[in-house]
Amino acid sequence: MAEWVNAEVKEVKNWTDALFSLRVKAPIDPFIAGQFAKLALEIDGERVQRAYSYVNAPKDDLLEFYLVTVPEGKLSPHLQTLRPGDQVMVTKEAAGFFVMDEVPECKTLWMLATGTAIGPYLSMLQQGEGLDRFENIVLVHAARYAADLSFLPLMQQLQQHYQGKLHIQTVVSREEIAGSLTGRVPALIENGELERATGLSLDADSSHVDAVRATRRWCVIPSNY
């Protein structure tokens, strides 16, 4: 059975009406970048809980979660109304195997994410452990609208930090924005647009985004497809 601890809310940042970040401080056990925790609130006498990935690096003091509010959801609308000083429950021990140690050897690591699934990649990139073995890293974030690319400034900062090793590419499906590809990632892989935009080869078709795949030259970690 999971052990729960109380977390103090430090900030609720609303990126859009539906997307928000929850930053809390809590006495949790150490976790590995890419893992997730469960958040919970007591609502009408019931403990309502959901799993969310860490966005922050394990070395950071504050824990950050990137969420989308589901209008009819049991938990997310309540989490969005929290204010600094409020309490939320979090599992003391993280879980999950979506971590760098599980990634096979390859030259180019492709990180593909839609929506809030960008979180674990940002945790990995901010921590920086286990990434030296890749010659190139490609971070692809797909969203419906440009306003939903909440962490683009952080992605750009990380790109500078990695000094040419990290390539970022945004994809927007419902409007055309300069610098972003338009459409959906599986189709952009299949028609070669993603490769042309990044200048890196991905010998794959749309079926490859359903699982981690590897060859001598590239590997893919799909998230939220």
Notes on the protein architecture:
By secondary structure, this protein is α/β, with parallel strands linked by helices. The chain has two domains: 4-91, Elongation Factor Tu (Ef-tu), domain 3; 100-217, Rossmann fold, CATH 3.40.50. The protein contains five helices and twelve strands. The chain has helices at residues 76-80, 119-127, 152-161, 185-190, 193-198, and strands at residues 4-14, 19-25, 36-43, 46-53, 63-68, 87-91, 108-114, 136-143, 166-172, 181-182, 213-214, 218-223. The strands form two sheets. A six-stranded antiparallel beta sheet has the order 4-3-6-1-2-5. Strands 10-9-8-7-12-11 form a six-stranded mixed beta sheet. Helix 2 links the parallel strand 7 (108-114) and strand 8 (136-143). The longest helix is centred in the last third of the chain and has 10 residues, at 152-161. The radius of gyration is 18 Å and the shape is globular. InterPro entries: Cbr1-like_FAD-bd_dom, FAD-bd_FR_type, FNR_bac, FNR_nucleotide-bd, FNR_type-1, OxRdtase_FAD/NAD-bd, Riboflavin_synthase-like_b-brl. Belongs to the ferredoxin--NADP reductase type 1 family. It is an enzyme of class 1 (oxidoreductase). Pfam families: FAD_binding_6, NAD_binding_1.
